[in-house]
Every structure is written in C-alpha cells, then in structure tokens.
Amino acid sequence: MDRSVLSLIFKNFSHEKAEKCADEMLSDFQRMYFARYYANPFPLRRSAVMMLLFVRDDRLKTIMIERTDIGVHAGQISFPGGKAEPSDADSIETAIRETMEEIGVRVRREDVIGDLPSVKVPVSKFEIFPVVAFVDEVGDFKKSESEVKKVLEVDVEDMRTSLGNRVVTAAGKQYEVPSFLCGNSVVWGATAMIVAEMFGVMADAV
Questions:
Q1: What is the pLDDT of residues 121-130, one digit of tens each?
Q2: Are 181 and 187 in contact (CB under 8 A)?
C-alpha cells in the first residue's frame, strides 16, 4: 500500500466497525476496570500515540517500542506517545512531540493521514487518541534512555496473523487475553485495541 491508498483508507472508514474491533480485544482484567469506571466515572487524562506507517522491502511496517522497567507502563509494548501537555494544540501535536522525544523521529503534520477512535484506559486514568502517519523513510532512531528500552520495527501483516489468546500477568494474577505478537512479546490491552482498530479499518477497505 502506498500513501495515497492509506490516506483514503484512514479518512473513509467506519468508526463503528473500528470500535467494535477494539472491544473484541478487551480482556477480563480490562472489563473489571471498565465496570468500575462506568459505575463511578472519573476524569481521564488526554494522551496520544503515533502509529507511524512506512513501506520497506514491499512490506507495510510500523514502529513500536518496549518501555523501560520504570513507571506504570513498565516493560510494555506500545506505540510511541504519551500524555498531552497544556501547550499542545491537539492530539496530532502531542503524538508528534512524543514521537520525537521517545524515538528521535521527526514526523511532520503533513505526514499525518488520519486518526482512529480513542481508547479509554481506566486502570491508568488515560484516554488515548491514536494518530496515523505515513512517511517514506523513518531515518535513524535516537531513543529516550529513560523511557524506551527498545525500538521495534514491526511487520504489519505478521502482527495481523499472530492474533490469538495468550496468558499474561496483571496485578499479580494471570489472565488469558486476546493479543498480538511483536516478535516474542505479547501485545495486549489498550495497544492491542488500537492495533485491532487498524486492522478493522484496513479490512473495511478491501
């Protein structure tokens, strides 16, 4: 897929279908927190992530990161991104700024080809707004040593075919969760919901 095709896909998709795909990735662990949230709603902090797409060797790729072993998201696989700052004009600016800070890749506003429905994460009190961009070249990475353990180049089709249920540990308990694989790492939770939205959007365009 080239930029023009991807731009059309991410600007003319069914939000309802994307959200349904995300809901199908909810684990029992997440459903527990969602039940508490909807029973007694509280404010969620705004954040944004960057789904950076590019083509290498005729294969569609994206960039994910393994976070360091510090903080609430320690060791997790995610897209580059983070919380919005008061100075950010919108989620696009948040995602662009965080991508530069975390992996040293400069994404221009004109590289952005769309966005995906937001994903609520009651357990960490965030609402994530996924931004989708396409670049011809990602260039060299310069990761934030305090936030990023590894920068991962991910084959999109390989991730799609890895969908399955796997056992993870959360809050000291084991849960069987719908998930994808990123290399040997399990991608589940909010990030898996965002990935599922992407695949739902692409399937909708086929």
A1: 999 999 999 9
A2: yes
